Amino acid sequence: MAQKMTDDEWRAFVSHGTRTGKLSTVRADGSPHVAPIWFLLDGEDLVFNTGKDTVKGRNLARDGRVALCVDDDRPPFDFVVLQGRATLSEDLDDLRHWAARIGARYMGEERAEEFGARNGVPGELLVRVRIDKVLAQAAVAH
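^ thats the sequence. predicted structure below, dont judge the formating
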């Protein structure tokens, strides 16, 4: 039987290694849009960046509601779903800082500044999601 993860357990789970998230945003017609993202946790917030003119960037500017799923697809299967509302920033200093930190997580410290420079530019958005709801289950197949 699945076990509910504690706050510390789900935070460790989503922050482990290079696990990506599957982000769901709301399209203008109300239908969902799902895209993989790189992300970090910052206290009670989920942080990532995206292009202002991407589908998710446009969706977030119009409707900030999001859900993010992070999972381990190996038995016994674990998953975390985070829900919240996004706020957007185009502050280049913050954007570059977080883009570098996210790049360090997924590509290594030696490439952090490269990703900060690539993604911390005009036309990109820093997205900060205040986490309102968490569903976190471990050992789903037990």
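Strands lie at 3-4, 21-26, 32-37, 40-42, 45-51, 65-72, 78-89, 124-138.
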